[in-house]
Amino acid sequence: MTRTFFVGGNWKMNGSVAAVSTLVDGLNTASLKQGVEVVIAPPALYIPAVQSSLKAGHVAAQNIYSESKGAFTGEISAEMLKDVGVQWVILGHSERRHVFGETDELIAKKAKHALGVGLKVIFCIGETLQEREANKTTEVVFHQLSAVAQVVSDWSNIVIAYEPVWAIGTGKVATPVQAQEVHHDIRVWLKDHVSPQAAENTRIVYGGSVNAGNCQEIGRQADVDGFLVGGASLKPEFADIINAAQ
Ligand code: PEP
Fold this sequence. Notes:
Elements: E1 6-10, H1 17-29, E2 37-41, H2 47-53, E3 58-61, H3 78-83, E4 88-91, H4 94-98, H5 104-117, E5 120-125, H6 129-133, H7 137-149, E6 158-162, H8 176-193, H9 196-201, E7 204-207, H10 215-219, E8 226-229, H11 238-242
Parallel strand pairs: 1-2, 1-8, 2-3, 3-4, 4-5, 5-6, 6-7, 7-8
Helix pairs in contact: 5-7, 7-8
């Protein structure tokens, strides 16, 4: 099976009514390669605006809570996203893990809940610089994957985003070889711990300072099935990154 190239744009906590309109207009008028799955994750407040105006892709939330409803002030649920027609959610982003202290177990609980409700999940994993320098990259990402594998058996609605923490928003991008190595290891892990089908079919996308200049070479790697893009998704070059699809 060929894996459809996937490009996600994570706007993080950026935007305004005017900026959202400019960004969506830019994407709607850009010349984009056919056959790429594009998913934009605006701040939750702007989801309806993006949903009603974006022609070139789908919309994701940047997070959910693990429960359906109730006394969880400030949170939104998977059910609410489904209710307003959102299909995707990003879970486990390094900022959720490191700024907000989300654990592997909480992220796994959220993933199980989101998938159960019928959302698709962009599941982020990745090591810190300290962990990479201590040769713990695979140990860390396998642990992050295992937490989800313990509670989820069907990976067909999961896109894995390998995002080394040291490369997110830093301008330090993993080399194509570094990205390919980890993506390959993740695919082997899927084969051994989920199924050969999951290894073959699951998209593994790279994130971490992807831009128009580095996307072509990273995107050419055998186990890189697309990108999750932060900073550059707020710029016109996001169209070039979509067009780097192999
Ligand atoms: C991200 O937020 O997922 C990300 C990869 O950010 P950036 O592209 O800015 O490094």
